[in-house]
């Protein structure tokens, strides 16, 4: 094992996933427990386990620091794509970055991993200022504080959020009247239901013109693996609303202790007029206390339903680290061009046309 010093005096070790032992996992979980920045399920070792088992090898950068008596001060699960290191679970990980107590030098990490580039697009504002300085664009990642379930959420929600939840209650009754009794399952173990939700999601990608995340069969396997993963402080979360025998809306996400992540929601497009996604979201918030959920992360994006439902937000960053000056320049040019499009009048109009397809319905 080669050791590379960082500018902070800490040392980075490259550890193949198969060699990640109980001591590393215990230190990892201890850092998470001490800092709510890392409360998301994406930072749990079990998520990296599932990714390694299904979609591709994971390498762990382990950081020790002399000021902490050589103890493990940070871990950073990454995946390799040629000479580029990517956050574990890329491109679907909605929170990224090292789980650390100390600053981490990304260039030193790349040297240790024998890589040239590092890319990220959902970096959290953790305790690593050197890495944070590499983030060139910051965007909002909304969340819902669902402590106390439906009553607690409605006390904190915006006027728009309360209005949409009120409409969801009425539309749920209308759906039941026309389609059959409404039934909500908060935490299903059904792989057949998960396949149904993934198939609907694939159709949604086609309808919206977005890249199909599940075009790689390994990613479907990842969700099935996560559905079977059941630990006291981590699991997949499969929820669905049926009316009679018809699937109205469904969702697959992740849960770690009191935090759940809204990851792959989808609804029957023929029922868009009933806003089925809002019905599902309301049911999940109502079920939150029974699931032990206090916070529901909605993921980065300025979708209208997220703006209406959110009670707060965090920032996540996008950036690129490279030993190559030419590669850094090229990234800055591409990022600048994307921001110009976002700031223009084109992007909002396109998002408006896609809202009903990708969101929760009308």
Secondary structure layout plus pairing:
Blueprint: E1 3-5, E2 10-16, H1 22-34, H2 45-54, E3 58-65, E4 72-81, E5 84-87, E6 99-100, H3 106-112, E7 117-123, H4 129-132, E8 135-145, H5 149-156, H6 159-179, E9 182-185, H7 191-208, H8 217-228, E10 230-231, E11 234-243, E12 246-256, E13 259-267, H9 276-291, E14 295-297, H10 304-309, E15 312-322, H11 325-343, H12 346-358
Parallel strand pairs: 5-7, 13-14
Antiparallel strand pairs: 1-2, 2-3, 3-4, 4-5, 4-6, 7-15, 8-14, 8-15, 9-11, 10-11, 11-12, 12-13
Helix pairs in contact: 2-8, 5-9, 6-9, 7-8
The biggest sheet amounts to: 15 strands, mixed
Radius of gyration: 21 Å
Number of DSSP helical runs: 12
Distance between the termini: 55 Å
Number of strands: 15
Order of helices and strands: EEHHEEEEHEHEHHEHHEEEEHEHEHH
Strand content: 25-35%
Please estimate the helix content.
40-55%
What's the shape? globular
Low-confidence stretches: 1-7, 348-356
């Amino acid at each position: 094992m080669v050791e590379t010093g960082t500018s902070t005096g800490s040392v980075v070790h490259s550890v193949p996933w198969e060699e990640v032992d109980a001591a590393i996992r215990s230190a990892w979980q201890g850092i998470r427990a001490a800092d709510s920045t890392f409360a998301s399920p994406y930072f749990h070792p079990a998520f990296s386990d599932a990714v390694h088992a299904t979609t591709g090898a994971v390498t762990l950068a382990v950081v020790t620091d002399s000021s902490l008596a050589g103890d493990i001060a940070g871990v950073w699960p990454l995946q390799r794509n040629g000479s580029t290191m990517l956050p574990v679970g890329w491109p679907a990980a909605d929170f990224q970055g090292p789980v650390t107590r100390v600053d981490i030098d990304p260039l030193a990490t790349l040297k240790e991993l024998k890589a040239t580039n590092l890319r990220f697009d959902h970096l959290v504002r953790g305790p690593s200022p050197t890495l944070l300085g590499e983030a060139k664009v910051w965007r909002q990642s909304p969340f819902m504080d669902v402590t106390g379930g439906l009553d607690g959420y409605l006390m904190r929600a915006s006027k728009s959020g309360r209005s949409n939840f009120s409409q969801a209650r009425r539309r749920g009754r209308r759906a039941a009247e026309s389609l059959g009794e409404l039934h909500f399952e908060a935490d299903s173990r059904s792989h057949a239901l998960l396949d149904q939700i993934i198939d609907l999601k694939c159709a949604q990608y086609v309808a919206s013109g977005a890249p199909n995340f599940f075009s790689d069969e390994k990613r479907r396997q990842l969700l099935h693996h996560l559905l079977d993963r059941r630990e006291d402080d981590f699991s997949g979360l499969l929820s669905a609303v049926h009316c009679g025998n018809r699937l109205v809306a469904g969702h697959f996400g992740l849960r770690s202790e009191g935090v759940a992540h809204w990851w792959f929601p989808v609804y029957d497009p023929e029922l868009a007029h009933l806003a089925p996604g809002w019905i599902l979201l309301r049911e999940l918030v109502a079920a939150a206390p029974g699931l032990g959920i206090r916070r529901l992360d909605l993921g980065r994006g300025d979708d209208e339903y997220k703006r209406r439902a959110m009670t707060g937000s965090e920032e996540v960053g996008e950036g690129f680290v490279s030993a190559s000056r030419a590669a850094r320049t090229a990234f800055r040019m591409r990022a600048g061009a994307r921001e110009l499009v976002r700031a223009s009048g084109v992007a909002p109009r396109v998002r408006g046309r896609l809202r009903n397809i990708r969101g929760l319905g009308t």
